[in-house]
Design a protein that fits this description.
Layout lengths: L1 H41 L4 H28 L1
Length: 75
Amino acid sequence: MGKEIKEDNGFSALSLAWELGYSIAVPLVVLALAGRFLDKKLDTSPFLLLAGILVSIFISSYMVYKKTTDIMDRK
């Protein structure tokens, strides 16, 4: 029984790491690419790229904070 709990904790840690990775990477990539595309189209380089990165930092931070508080509330 102890081994099953240990394996479950390892799987949940891996799952959490994977989810947090996506919470950070997806907004960063999407908003940075959108900013770069708009910069080329509107000739405003690099302002919209930087704005996209800053917005993605706020979004990712909120998503990580929300996931962390959800985990803390469960325990």
